[in-house]
Amino acid sequence: VWNKQQTELFKEATGQGLVRTCDGRLDSPGHTAKYGTYTATDSETKEVLRVETVQV
């Protein structure tokens, strides 16, 4: 479902001049973070375009 919605959002944004806002954060259970999350949103519609969680 997520992949289908993401594809539709990118199709709608094609040719419209997408304004993107991105942010990342590291979650830490102690002194060092094990995972990081990076999120990209469309600044005008406030829709989430992409979310990535990576092990750091």
UniProtKB/TrEMBL annotation:
UniProt superkingdom: Eukaryota
Database matches in PANTHER family: PROTEIN CBG10204, SI:CH211-108C17.2-RELATED-RELATED
Protein name: Uncharacterized protein
Organism: Ixodes scapularis
